[in-house]
Automatic annotation (TrEMBL):
<comment type="function">
    <text>Catalyzes the transfer of a formyl group from 10-formyltetrahydrofolate to 5-phospho-ribosyl-glycinamide (GAR), producing 5-phospho-ribosyl-N-formylglycinamide (FGAR) and tetrahydrofolate.</text>
</comment>
<protein>
    <recommendedName>
        <fullName>Phosphoribosylglycinamide formyltransferase</fullName>
        <ecNumber>2.1.2.2</ecNumber>
    </recommendedName>
</protein>
<comment type="pathway">
    <text>Purine metabolism; IMP biosynthesis via de novo pathway; N(2)-formyl-N(1)-(5-phospho-D-ribosyl)glycinamide from N(1)-(5-phospho-D-ribosyl)glycinamide (10-formyl THF route): step 1/1.</text>
</comment>
<feature type="binding site">
    <location>
        <begin position="91"/>
        <end position="94"/>
    </location>
    <ligand>
        <name>(6R)-10-formyltetrahydrofolate</name>
    </ligand>
</feature>
<dbReference type="InterPro" id="IPR002376">
    <property type="entry name" value="Formyl_transf_N"/>
</dbReference>
<feature type="binding site">
    <location>
        <position position="108"/>
    </location>
    <ligand>
        <name>(6R)-10-formyltetrahydrofolate</name>
    </ligand>
</feature>
<keyword id="KW-0658">Purine biosynthesis</keyword>
<feature type="binding site">
    <location>
        <position position="66"/>
    </location>
    <ligand>
        <name>(6R)-10-formyltetrahydrofolate</name>
    </ligand>
</feature>
<feature type="domain" description="Formyl transferase N-terminal">
    <location>
        <begin position="5"/>
        <end position="183"/>
    </location>
</feature>
<feature type="site" description="Raises pKa of active site His">
    <location>
        <position position="146"/>
    </location>
</feature>
<feature type="active site" description="Proton donor">
    <location>
        <position position="110"/>
    </location>
</feature>
<dbReference type="Pfam" id="PF00551">
    <property type="entry name" value="Formyl_trans_N"/>
</dbReference>
<comment type="similarity">
    <text>Belongs to the GART family.</text>
</comment>
<feature type="binding site">
    <location>
        <begin position="13"/>
        <end position="15"/>
    </location>
    <ligand>
        <name>N(1)-(5-phospho-beta-D-ribosyl)glycinamide</name>
    </ligand>
</feature>
<dbReference type="InterPro" id="IPR001555">
    <property type="entry name" value="GART_AS"/>
</dbReference>
<dbReference type="InterPro" id="IPR004607">
    <property type="entry name" value="GART"/>
</dbReference>
<dbReference type="GO" id="GO:0006189">
    <property type="term" value="P:'de novo' IMP biosynthetic process"/>
</dbReference>
Amino acid sequence: MAFEIVVLVSGFGSNLQALIDAAKAHPDQYRIKAVICNRPQAYALERARQANIPYFTICAAAGQTRESYDQQLNQQLETLQPDLIVMAGFMRILSAGFTEKWQHKLINIHPSLLPKYPGLNTHQRALDARDAIHGISIHYVNAEVDGGPVIAQAQLEIKSQDSAETLAQRIHELEHQLLPAVVLAIATKKIHYNLAHHQVTFLGDEIQAPLSLENLYRAKSTD
Ligand code: GAR
């Protein structure tokens, strides 16, 4: 049976689309069992509908506590029993109880080279700091916002003419390559999370630095 993932989204869903396209290209390796979204107007839901993927909208009610929202999310995930949960632009902070429970199968994509710039407005913060390099990280999720062991990163050079908008566009291009590559590597057991030691292993060895797209492609070509 194919490895089953659930994708959590909040917005445009271009990373969800990259995952949909990769799943179509590798139907024997993973399938998207469902999409869960916290915003009813998100275009990501239209992408799920077009791809015939079941989707669920779980909106936070006014005054609802984080814990209560996460319980609802947890219930849906309990029903779905995914092998992996992918936060692909899911813009909610998760409670410690939730992350504790799912941390062994919960990954997030974040638009910065963590540990730099957890949180929001990462492109503008990289520009304001006059960074030469910016990038993206994919990591297992723990209770710390944008914390948790980093699995893979990809980077780009910031050009003098870059704005937050041009960076966002170039960052998205990197994300659309790296995220499906990481999901495929987890689905095919090349990447493993050793929860007891909070260590990520790749092809059996603990990683000493975040994996690159080249690492992942090289491992794929030896299949
Ligand atoms: C992506 O750039 C992702 O890295 C970011 O939201 C965007 C979603 O784009 N996530 C975060 O900032 C989480 N901290 P998309 O909806 O087009 O996939």
